[in-house]
Design goal:
By secondary structure, the chain is α/β, with parallel strands linked by helices. It has 23 helices and 23 strands. The protein folds into three domains: about 200 residues, Rossmann fold (3-Layer(aba) Sandwich), CATH 3.40.50.970; about 160 residues, Rossmann fold (3-Layer(aba) Sandwich); about 190 residues, Thiamin diphosphate (ThDP)-binding fold, Pyr/PP domains (Rossmann fold, 3-Layer(aba) Sandwich). The radius of gyration is 25 Å and the shape is globular. GO terms for molecular function: 3D-(3,5/4)-trihydroxycyclohexane-1,2-dione hydrolase activity; acetolactate synthase activity; flavin adenine dinucleotide binding; magnesium ion binding; thiamine pyrophosphate binding.
């Protein structure tokens, strides 16, 4: 008879998590980097006690906000290229709902995180329990049902034995390259404490190694044939290149074929910025070097990308009517987007086999030379935009230039929302794979500091530079205190343009009046003077406000020597952005308005929409 052990459901859960492993750099390591927890009445007695019992094998970290602790877990997974991940637990009610934004972020970006919110009593005796949201027509609903549309797998545990199939399915989803995304197991608070005789085999150590599916022979042949016919082929490298750790295969493929590449926000750093065939950013926030090739390309090999609107210029960028799009992706849903020729495979395996199929073939030399010349021209233009300035309020580009010069390509730069993603996508010169950490799939304001903390946990020996605007900082900054508490140093560069400068610029570009974005244009009795440096210092950070690019460079050099999180504040111009490069983005403008500026913007908008490839 199989051996059994009597445990509570919560104890079984934590024991199971503590014995799941993976392989990293030839060594076996725990696949869970730990559990982020903010305890409340819905998880402290059950899961809290269980986590305490395994604290040496499965460390528990205390966050300051449920959303930000889940962001930290996601940042950890992203920095680990999805090979390792974390869990996050909250109580029932507002604690749980706080994590829904993080779940959506992970869902959009295809990143693994295990969310363990407390839930109502399965027995319904104390119904309604504190913080319970009641549905008048459905007694089975709780706030955790909010997680359903933003989870790859959702389950509510209403009996202790249900945790066995639920955890097995959770691990399949978290480690599957095609299905990967957030898993939510809603834990009824009474069931957390109920005991069951679990089989000992459930707690046997298991090692999860990522699946690497190889391409179908027919799809491979069709792809190779399409590329051989191309005169102007282009590669779009997405985040899947990094998650597959396929950068070496990509470099070999590019060098063998002479096909230039460009990178999405998620794919930036797939190749070093100084590679002669890396045209860098593509799309709305792209470089002129990349976008001019994209307009002409007759074959687009899209690797590991969702082909979202910022990449495609709302499907107006790829203008060659005779183009063929090829989707090399581990997820068939993405591989077949926009009537693409699908090549369903792991990025590294797909590139290796495609390289063999194309052996001896090269893109026309004139196309490759054209790409290299365009890159050189863009680099010269970018150098002008990032050069040192004596302006009272420097541009974001000039701040980026200072950070690049002092911190270097060896550091990891992390960002999420506002104007910085566009400027960094164009201008940051990434080095090693993963050194550009963008959360631009969901573009979540407030991800930056928490995500930076997670990235630092994944790469404790690397310099993590968080670049953040004042708007995002005000939304979610409390994990500065956690970084200090854990001894995990971040360098945070806070650009203060006194409002939501990026959206203010978009508002102006679409004919709108300056309204409700910059602090001065929002309803107010008096304008606040926010001392960000003092605020950061109050949480234990080393902090400083600088008044020029020269002072910023001095402060950054000092920050490299600091052993504690350092926040450097600099005021920037809210109205200036990099005009070179970039492409149109479909932001709908009113058909009817009393304002002439809106009418003019609508006319231009209608002209741009005619370029969209509706049939693709």
């Amino acid at each position: 008879m199989a051996s059994k052990i009597r445990l509570t459901m919560a104890q079984a859960l934590t024991r199971f998590l503590s014995v799941q492993t993976t392989e990293a750099e030839g060594a076996k390591v725990p696949i869970f980097g730990g559990v982020w927890a903010i305890f409340g009445h819905g998880n402290v007695a059950g899961l809290g006690e269980a986590l305490y019992s395994v604290r040496d094998q499965l460390p528990t970290f205390r966050g300051q906000n449920e959303q930000s602790m889940a962001h930290a877990a996601i940042g950890f997974a992203k920095a680990n290229f999805r090979r390792r991940f974390m869990a996050a637990t909250s109580s029932i009610g507002p604690g749980a709902v706080n994590m829904v934004t993080a779940a959506a972020l992970a869902h959009v970006n295809r990143l693994p995180v295990l969310l363990l919110p407390g839930d109502v009593f399965a027995n319904r005796i104390p119904d309604p329990v504190l913080q319970q949201v009641e549905d008048f027509g459905d007694a089975t609903v709780s706030v955790n049902d909010c997680f359903r549309p933003v989870s790859r797998y959702f389950d509510r545990i209403t009996r202790p034995e249900q945790i066995i199939p639920a955890l097995n399915r959770a691990m399949q989803v978290l480690t599957d390259p095609a299905e990967c995304g957030p898993v939510t197991l809603a834990l009824c608070q009474d069931v957390q404490t109920e005991a069951y005789d679990y089989p000992q085999s459930f707690f046997a150590e298991r090692t999860w190694v990522p699946r690497r599916p190889r391409p179908d022979r027919l799809e491979l042949a069709r792809t190779a044939d399409a590329l051989k016919k191309a005169k102007k082929p282009l590669i779009v490298a997405g985040g899947g290149v990094l998650y597959s750790q396929a950068s070496d295969e990509l470099a070999k493929f590019v060098e063998a074929t002479g096909i230039p590449i460009c990178e999405t926000q998620g794919g930036k750093s797939s190749l070093p910025d100084d590679h002669s065939l890396n045209m860098a950013a593509v799309g709305v926030t792209g470089t002129e070097a990349a976008n001019r090739l994209a307009k002409e390309a007759d074959a687009v090999l899209a690797i590991g990308t969702r082909l979202q609107d910022f990449t495609t210029g709302s499907w107006a960028l790829f203008q060659n009517a005779a183009k063929t799009i090829i989707g090399l992706n581990v997820q068939p849903f993405d591989a077949g987007k926009h009537r693409a020729l699908p090549l369903v495979a792991d990025a590294a395996e797909g590139l290796a086999e495609l390289g063999t199929a194309l052996k001896g073939w090269k893109a026309p030399a004139s196309w490759t030379l054209n790409a290299r010349e365009g890159k050189a021209a863009w680099q010269a233009e970018a150098a002008k935009m990032t050069a040192t300035t004596n302006a009272a309020y420097p541009s974001e580009a000039q701040v980026i230039g200072a950070v690049q010069r002092i911190m270097g390509a060896g550091s990891t730069v992390l960002h999420a929302a506002g104007g910085l993603p566009g400027e960094l996508h164009k201008l940051w010169q990434a080095g090693k794979p993963g050194s550009f950490h963008a959360e631009y799939g969901f573009s979540t304001m407030g991800y930056e500091i928490a995500g930076g903390l997670g990235a630092k946990m994944a790469k404790p020996d690397k310099e993590i530079v968080v670049m953040i605007g004042d708007g995002s900082y005000l939304m979610l900054n409390s994990e500065i205190a956690t970084s200090v508490m854990l001894g995990l140093k971040l360098t945070i560069v806070l650009l203060d343009n006194r409002g939501f400068g990026c959206i203010n610029r978009l508002q102006m570009a679409t004919g709108g009046a300056n309204f409700n974005n910059l602090l001065k244009d929002a309803r107010h009795e008096s304008l606040p003077h926010i001392d960000f440096a003092a605020h950061a210092a109050s949480m234990g950070a080393i902090s400083q406000k600088v008044s020029s690019i020269a002072e910023l460079e001095t402060a950054l050099a000092a920050a490299k020597m600091n052993t504690r999180t350092t926040v450097i504040v600099i005021e920037t111009d809210p109205l200036v952005s990099t005009q070179a490069g970039g492409f149109w983005w479909d932001v709908a403008i009113p058909e009817v308005s009393s304002r002439e500026q809106v009418k003019a913007a609508r006319k231009t908008y209608e002209q741009n929409r005619r370029r969209q490839n509706v049939g693709d």
